[in-house]
Design a protein that fits this description.
Length: 457
């Protein structure tokens, strides 16, 4: 054990600031620089000259500003980094150049120092770390927006994963969100102000739950039991005795991160099978369990030695009324039937619409064209190639031609679901997957009793 502590002399992690005023200053300074840069770029874009050159300059400005935001949010972690992740997952909020750089926030964050980790554990459990673990690896196996994970062995002999929250995450949540919201409003070059209030209210609700590991350990325990009877899928066993609001101890499961496992596979059919299994997990959760593991990053799934998919990180799980997921299935069925008025009615039932909630200005004759863009994988009973599918760009071009569709603003309740769809699409595109998504959704709609007879095939 002592040899492991000696490794700390060369630790390379970073300290995480928990001082509210320092965090506000960093966010405010970043916001001022981004806003100033955006104003200069916008002014330059209206000056006479070569149009292509102006467009290229604007793209470079977006990339430079995104880099500034990523650097600060990655350093501050907590709510700041999580908001950045959520914004980058919504293609309608950010220009493509900004989203591409911001997407780096979805990857592992720079870890905090071991001394910070040790202090967090000892403060939470009120005892020296050496009395809890016979082994504790100072190097994290992963780090993200809210905390980081270390491999350890309990004194009782069980191999465990220890998730430790960054200091001050919960305390800084409200001030971070206010500072970020102000920054985004001030630098309006890259975000739609009309959606911020509802989005930030939902993000705050989700983050308050995610920052409370006592909620997560309970959710993890429930899913551990549920998945015991589901073939090919499992979740780690939690250790409530050693878990607190900012420390979570769970079973350590050996395996390979899903995206790494997929990239190593040489067999295309085997890769397709694994991706279909992963998609099916989300269909099952959302449409039959009425809960959603709302952080679909492939790093939150492992492929273990027995070919099981292992679900990790249950900090962001959202429950739904059964009618909510059913409405999304009705949208697909209405599109199959080329029934635009029914499609708009379902959107209204879901709560889509701008603040006035009025979708009457949307031309029903155009809604079918819009739907065929966003549900393209489900329109034909044949494998769909996800690699070349760019729905965000296609819908943006469509909405610019038909501005009334900007009224089709999703409700806050759909934020987690849309984040999941974006994550699923991202991995399928990265793997250039070809999957018959039609048959998967058709069977699901039929099982739910929502299928209109003789759908378009």
């Amino acid at each position: 054990m002592s040899e492991d502590w000696e490794k700390l002399a060369g630790e390379t992690g970073e300290a995480v600031s928990s001082n509210r005023f320092k965090r506000m200053f960093k966010l405010g300074s970043m916001g001022a620089r981004v806003a100033a840069s955006s104003m200069v770029s916008k002014f330059g874009s209206i000056l006479p000259g070569d149009a292509q050159q102006r467009e290229d300059d604007l793209k470079r400005s977006h990339i430079k500003n995104a880099g500034r935001v990523v650097n600060v949010l990655s350093e501050l972690k907590g709510a700041s980094m999580k908001v950045g992740q959520m914004l980058s997952a919504d293609p309608e909020l950010l220009p493509p150049e900004f989203s591409d750089v911001m997407s780096s926030l979805q990857k592992d964050a720079t870890p905090m120092t071991y001394m910070t980790v040790k202090a967090q554990i000892e403060r939470a459990l009120d005892r020296p770390i050496e009395t809890i673990f016979s082994y504790f690896d100072p190097e994290p196996v992963g780090s993200a927006s809210i905390g980081q994970v270390h491999r350890a062995v309990l004194e009782s002999g069980e191999e465990v994963a220890v998730k430790v929250q960054y200091p001050g995450v919960a305390d800084s949540l409200e001030s971070d969100l206010k500072s970020l919201k102000t920054m985004l409003i001030y630098g309006r070059a890259f975000v739609d102000r009309g959606r911020l209030d509802e989005i930030f209210a939902e993000i705050e609700r989700m983050l308050l739950e995610e920052a409370n590991y006592e909620i997560e350990v309970e959710t993890l325990g429930r899913f551990h039991e549920i998945l015991k009877d589901r073939k090919g899928l499992r979740a780690p066993k939690p250790y409530p005795k050693w878990s607190r609001k900012d420390v979570l101890v769970m079973e350590y499961i050996h395996g390979t991160k899903l995206d790494d496992a997929l990239e190593k596979l040489e067999s295309a059919p085997r890769r397709q099978d694994l991706l279909e299994r992963w998609m099916t997990v989300y269909y099952w959760m959302f449409h039959e369990l009425y809960e959603l593991h709302a952080d679909p990053h492939p790093g939150n799934f492992l492929l273990d030695e027995d070919d099981n998919l292992v679900m990790l990180d249950f900090g962001c799980v959202k429950k739904y009324d059964p009618a909510f997921p059913d409405h999304f299935l009705k949208l697909v069925d209405a599109t199959w039937q080329n029934d635009p008025r029914r499609t708009l009615e379902v959107y209204e039932n879901l709560g889509f619409g701008a603040q006035d909630g009025d979708l009457s200005k949307i031309d029903p004759e155009l809604i079918q064209q819009y739907q065929e863009i966003i549900v393209a994988p489900f329109m034909r009973n044949e494998p769909f190639r996800f690699g070349g599918w760019e729905p965000a760009k296609e819908t943006k071009r469509f909405m610019l031609r038909h501005p009334s569709f900007f009224k089709l603003v999703p409700p806050p309740e759909a934020l987690a679901y849309l984040r999941v769809l974006s994550g699923i699409k991202g991995l399928l595109s990265k793997m250039d997957a070809e999957i018959n998504a039609y048959s998967m959704v058709h069977d699901l709609i039929e099982r739910r009793g929502l299928l209109t007879p003789d759908p378009v095939a």
